[in-house]
Write a structure and sequence with these properties.
The structure holds 2 protein chains of 2 kinds. Chain A is an alpha/beta fold. Chain A is built from 15 helices and 18 strands. In chain A, the strands form 4 sheets. Chain A has a 7-stranded mixed sheet. The longest helix of chain A is centred in the last third of the chain and has 20 residues. Chain B is α+β, with helices and mostly antiparallel strands. In chain B, a hairpin with a 3-residue loop joins strand 6 and strand 7. The chains are: A alpha/beta, B alpha+beta.
């Protein structure tokens, strides 16, 4: 009989991973590499698809793919090691760099300080330069790299930092620049997270890339390499401790309820789905309530992607993306820039924060018409060239304050109830920096922990 | 105008580029460089996208003809409502009048870097073919090669000089563009990317390193050979002196014996 309870942990041999998104797949992949002996791993995925927030569908009007979830990967190699980049390379996935420096404010496209001085005025330029200097002195490249492991708990919101921008135009510029990455409003996130999202625009801090052929190539590559029983369309409803210390996972599928016992369980779910799982009554239920409450800082994304018969914006929109001050700050992706020789034009809007949550209530046609109509005159689309538009809602899908206001140690973040349930772990991007890099860090921590227990 | 044995196309004015828009910029290497600046007028910032496109297409066509094909077609770099048509001897920048100074500054700075690298590459191209003939002397030196010591020393000095120039050039090529970005910084970065100047400098550095290694070794072998020759001469001198001393001793002994 296996027990991991109390101070007498024994090696686990069966592990349940709840969630078939990047967190679950990465945990399964890393577990297989880290454990000295094979573990029997079972993945439960509520939907019929693996990959979670990594989603690369195609239009129906033409066989053209687009990113509907995670748009890009962060490349930390300018400041340090990047395990995700190393994993992508190890999996043999080719990548394409992404870049963009333009911010569309009103009718003006601001791509550099010269544009800012000419359109917003010299005072705005000076204000921005002072803000930039201040941001760099508050967070060096080394601090930026380590920020998600030890988030600064100043108790102040990022709005207080933005208040230092005296010129309203300068403030609007910065808010537009970072809004869609934050996915929340500046007064609801920390100074550290706000600074990270501002400084990531400097290639000396961070670079961006995507996977050629679609970001879901990562999901396919991981799925092909993991050795696990994958149960799709199996929603986990309950997790409870059994008398022998193991954990019982109850799931629901088309053919009814299932109950399985495991030595260890990894909950790799977005916070909203995690809160929907029942943990009975007692210490675990209390601990999970506290865990969810601490990390309950929902941030929202809304993606609208339109297929045009040609990329009419070429020559006017430089780079892979630009920021636009519509909807509080939206990222405008030239999705066709990811392809070497695109036959069509694909423009994607990534809305974030309150606007994303509010507009998610609109129907798809209204949403598409609204965002396409928001383009400035210099980028105005000819409606006749629109072939199809798709909408993907990611309401509450990420955390606007990863790590919480009072970040805990890595172990405490990943093990909500260590006394009676040391064999229950959580994995999620909300524990780090709300990115795929963060979820890999989280999965690595838990996989190595389990591997250590398995080797004991 | 003829540069590096190539004749550039029509002079300014006849290719639709006004002569008064052209500046002759002195580059540090002495290489002639002409820079034309054309103001696109307020339409560049207008929302009349068709007019902007037509104006840019016209400028591109005229600029291509004027910049000419210097073994490679001119590089056309559209950037945030501006346009740069780059060639190593002639470049045209076009954009709103208030952006022309920034564009010109970026092009002149880049032209200086490109000109310096081009000059280094030209010198390397003359030195590299000699390496095969000189390489055996990096292993073993001979009497017949003694007369070439000055020539080899000259090539060593050339190699070191090229390596020094590349070392001076490298920081300017690798300096990151300023952040927040400026138009000049963005254009400079774009030109560096599109001309692959960093890669070219890397290859040139490898070639200069090869030359430096070969001629360093040649110098060492030549010095070793000269020292060995001097030592041999000294040894023979000692042998002769010792032999003379022995003869003198024998003569002395015989003389003493007969008396």
């Amino acid at each position: 009989m296996i027990s991991l309870a109390g101070n007498d942990p024994r090696p686990p041999s069966t592990v349940a991973i709840v969630g078939g998104g990047p967190g679950g797949l990465l945990t399964a992949h890393l577990l297989a590499r880290a454990t000295p002996r094979p573990l029997r791993v079972t993945i439960f995925e509520a939907s019929g698809r693996l990959g979670g927030k990594i989603l690369t569908p195609s239009f129906t009007a033409a066989p053209v793919r687009y990113e509907a979830g995670a748009a890009e990967f962060y490349d930390y190699t300018p400041v340090g090691e990047d395990p995700l980049r190393e994993l992508v390379e190890a999996l043999g996935l080719p990548t394409t760099p992404l870049s963009g420096s333009s911010v569309i404010v009103g009718r003006d496209t601001l791509s550099n300080l010269d544009d800012i001085a000419a359109r917003l005025g010299l005072a705005a330029r000076r204000d921005l330069e002072a803000f930039d200097l201040d941001a760099r002195s508050r967070m060096t490249r080394g601090e930026f790299y380590a920020a998600d492991e030890a988030p600064a708990a100043t108790g102040r919101s990022f709005a207080a930092v933005l208040d230092r921008l005296a010129a309203p135009a300068a403030r609007r510029y910065v808010e537009t620049l970072i809004h869609s990455d934050l996915a929340t409003e500046p007064d609801r996130t920390s100074v550290s997270y706000g600074l990270q999202n501002y400084l990531m625009n400097d290639p000396a801090y961070l670079r961006l890339y995507c996977i050629a052929g679609g970001n879901d190539q990562l999901v396919s590559a991981l799925e092909a390499r993991i050795d696990a029983d994958v149960h799709r369309s199996r929603r986990v409803t309950d997790v409870a401790r059994m008398p022998d210390g193991r954990l019982r996972v109850t799931s629901v599928a088309g053919d009814g309820r299932h109950s399985d016992a495991f030595d260890a369980v990894v909950l790799a779910l977005p916070l909203r789905q995690l809160a929907a799982v029942s943990f009975g009554a007692g210490r675990l239920a209390d601990a999970m309530r506290v865990h969810c409450h601490e990390h309950d800082h929902p941030a929202h994304y809304l993606r609208v992607t339109a297929l045009f018969d040609r990329p009419f914006w070429r020559g006017r929109l430089d780079g892979s993306f630009a920021m636009h001050d519509a909807f509080g700050g939206v990222c405008l992706y030239d999705e066709s820039a990811r392809e070497p020789e695109p036959r069509h034009g694909v423009l994607g809007w990534l809305l974030g924060g309150d606007a994303a949550e509010r507009m998610a209530a609109l129907d798809d046609d209204d949403l598409a018409a609204t965002v396409i109509g928001s383009l400035p005159p210099s980028l105005a689309a000819d409606p006749a060239t629109l072939l199809e538009a798709r909408v993907h809602r990611w309401t509450g899908a990420v955390s606007g304050l990863p790590g919480g206001w009072r970040p805990r140690s890595l172990d405490r973040r990943h093990q909500p109830e260590p006394v009676d349930h040391p064999n229950l772990f959580v994995v999620g991007d909300y524990l780090f920096d709300s990115t795929l890099n963060g979820v890999l860090d989280s999965a690595t921590h838990v996989a190595h922990w389990l591997a250590t227990l398995a080797a004991a | 105008m003829i540069i590096d044995g190539r004749e550039l196309p029509e002079p300014a004015g006849t290719a639709g580029i006004p002569a008064d828009a052209v500046e002759h910029v002195p580059l540090p290497t002495g290489r002639p460089f002409e820079l034309a600046a054309v103001a696109l007028g307020p339409t560049a910032a207008d929302d009349d996208t068709a007019a902007v496109d037509a104006a840019l297409a016209d400028v591109v066509a005229r600029a291509r003809a004027w910049v000419g094909d210097d073994g490679r077609p001119p590089l056309v770099v559209p950037l945030f409502g501006t346009l740069t048509v780059w060639g190593p001897h002639r470049t045209l920048v076009a954009g709103p009048a208030d952006r022309l100074p920034q564009l010109k500054a970026a092009v002149v700075e880049f032209a200086a870097l490109d000109g310096e690298l081009h000059d280094i590459e030209r010198h390397l191209a003359t030195l590299l073919p000699l390496v095969d003939a000189d390489a055996p002397l990096a292993f073993e030196f001979a009497d017949a090669a003694l007369s070439r010591r000055g020539e080899l020393a000259g090539r060593f000095r050339d190699a070191v000089s090229l390596r020094r120039r590349l070392a001076v050039l490298a920081p300017a090529l690798h300096v990151p563009a300023p952040q927040p970005p400026t138009l000049a910084g963005q254009l400079g970065e774009r030109l560096r990317e599109r001309t692959r100047i960093v890669d070219r400098a890397g290859f040139a550095t490898e070639q200069a390193d090869l030359l430096e290694r070969v001629y360093t070794a040649c110098g060492e072998r030549a010095s070793d050979f000269a020292i060995a020759r001097r030592q041999a001469a000294l040894e023979w001198t000692i042998v002769v002196l010792l032999a003379a001393e022995v003869v003198l001793m024998l003569v002395g002994a015989l003389t003493t014996g007969t008396t």
